[in-house]
From TrEMBL:
Signal peptide: 1-27
Keyword Mitochondrion on entry: no
One Gene Ontology MF term: hydrolase activity
Pfam families in alphabetical order: Abhydrolase_6 (PF12697)
Name this protein carries in UniProt: Alpha/beta hydrolase
Record lineage: Bacteria, Pseudomonadati, Pseudomonadota, Alphaproteobacteria, Hyphomicrobiales
Length: 259
């Protein structure tokens, strides 16, 4: 009988050891990042951020949203979250902030990160958030919709969206715009993730698409850990290292809280 007790004790110790290891792994397993682009662009703009995060050991998924409707974009993003290993830090730029606000309630999401992005409350949309700009605020050069889709004026794209991006690349971004569906702008958030998950927000102080004061107000309302950087709306393209480092701080902040 003593050998059986010894075996049971050994098995119990092993199970406890495995459990302790699993707990430690869980506390340190937020190494997946899902990046969500905004309107008028696609996921390729994240390449510089992707390169830094991959070099630093993160598993990175870049979502390619159709930007046809909020429901469609949330569905695509949730599939990306489901496919990512372990817990996820979910990152949104611009309109991507609306998508992560809606998709970020997924149980796998450990934190949401906003990069000069919209962070709507329940019942809000991009359309409602931009409806009454403050006096003197820059007005994005959005052209009238065609067949339910929007574009930015190509001649004004660089100054409004990508003022600190290399001119040749800013020009390419202007001429390779992705049609942004009016239905996506009108999509209302139901239960914003920032009310249930830790949030981080990077304010781009030279943004001509979303006024910095509006960014600060949304970050404050979300209770987000906020940082500011001098950059345009396309700061994720022009300053990928700074953006990647901010995302990594969020990931490490989640780990610290979990421990």
């Amino acid at each position: 009988m003593s050998s059986l007790f010894t075996l049971l004790a050994a098995a119990s110790a092993l199970a406890l050891g495995v459990s302790a290891t699993a707990t430690k792994a869980h506390a340190a397993d937020v190494k997946s990042v899902v990046l969500v682009h905004g309107g008028f662009v696609d996921g390729s703009g994240w390449q510089g951020v992707y390169d830094v995060l991959k070099k630093d050991g993160y598993d990175v998924t870049i979502v390619q949203n159709p930007t046809t409707s909020l429901a469609d974009d949330v569905a695509v993003t949730k599939r990306a979250i489901a496919a990512a290993p372990g817990q996820v830090v979910l990152v949104g730029h611009s309109y991507g902030g609306v998508v992560v606000s809606e998709a970020g309630t997924d149980p796998k999401v450990a934190a949401v990160v906003y990069i000069t992005a919209f962070a709507p409350d329940a019942g809000e949309s991009v359309s409602s958030l931009i409806a009454n700009p403050a006096p003197g605020a820059p007005v994005p050069p959005i052209l009238p919709p065609v067949d339910g889709f929007l574009f930015l004026d190509k001649a004004k794209f660089a100054a409004s969206f990508a003022a600190d991006v290399k001119p040749s690349l800013a020009s390419f971004m202007a001429y390779s715009q992705v049609p942004w569906g009016v239905a996506a702008l009108d999509g209302k958030v139901t239960a914003p993730a920032w009310k249930a998950k830790p949030a981080w927000y990077m304010v781009a102080t030279e943004d001509k698409m979303i006024p910095p004061e509006a960014q600060r107000a949304m970050a404050k309302r979300a209770g987000a850990t906020m940082a500011e950087a001098k950059g345009s709306h396309a700061i994720y393209v022009s300053q990928p290292k700074a953006v990647a480092e901010f995302i990594e701080k969020a990931a490490k902040g989640v780990k610290t809280a979990a421990q």
